[in-house]
Amino acid sequence: SSLSISACCLVLAAFLVTFSPPTVASTEGRSLAVREIEHLLHYLESSGCEFYRNGRWYDSEKASEHLRRKYGYYLKHTDAPSAEEFISEAATESSMSGDPYRVRCGTNPEMESALWFTSELERSRSAEKT
């Protein structure tokens, strides 16, 4: 009957969606996100800026190590995030205290890490387009 053919087609479609390999676009999107997140972590590490978390200022290398660990943990529990998701989920606030992370560079005023990372992400994307 047409009902059993429709049900069969639905099952087949669900199987194909569930077990099909990732498309080229999604693979490229993931690799772009990984490159952008690696750029942000390297940018922090080499910035010489200080990073505030849980009541203490840390140098840029310690801060980068901490965010790399958080990123690794995040990857074990979710799909690969976009750079924006990395910023909002891992690089904005302490998962222990909920306190916002802050960044200060030289004599510039300190700022929230989300703004600092987002600014660099936008700058790097603009630079790639030119």
Rg result = 20 Å
Separate helix tally: 5
Output mean pLDDT.
Answer: 83
Name the beta content range.
5-15%
N-C termini distance: 59 Å
Structural category: alpha+beta
- Shape descriptor: globular
Number of strands: 4
Helical content class: 55-70%
- Physical arrangement of strands within the biggest beta sheet: 2-1-3-4
| Major β-sheet profile | 4 strands, antiparallel
Characterise this structure.
Mean pLDDT is 83; it is low at 6-25. Helix 2 (24-47) runs antiparallel to helix 3 and helix 4 runs antiparallel to helix 5 (113-129). Helices cover 65% and strands 10% of the residues. The protein is of the alpha+beta class. The chain has helices at 2-19, 24-47, 60-77, 83-90, 113-129; strands spanning 50-53, 56-59, 102-104, 111-112. Strands 2-1-3-4 form a four-stranded antiparallel beta sheet. It is globular.
